[in-house]
Amino acid sequence: MVDDISRGSSLNLSTYDLRNTNLSHCILIGSTLSRDLSGANLAGADLSKTSLSSAFTRCNLTGANLEGAKLCGTMLAYAILAGCNLSGADLKSANLTNARLSNASLAGADVSGANLFGASLDGCCLDGIIGMR
Question: Model-level pTM greater than 0.90?
Answer without folding.
Answer: no
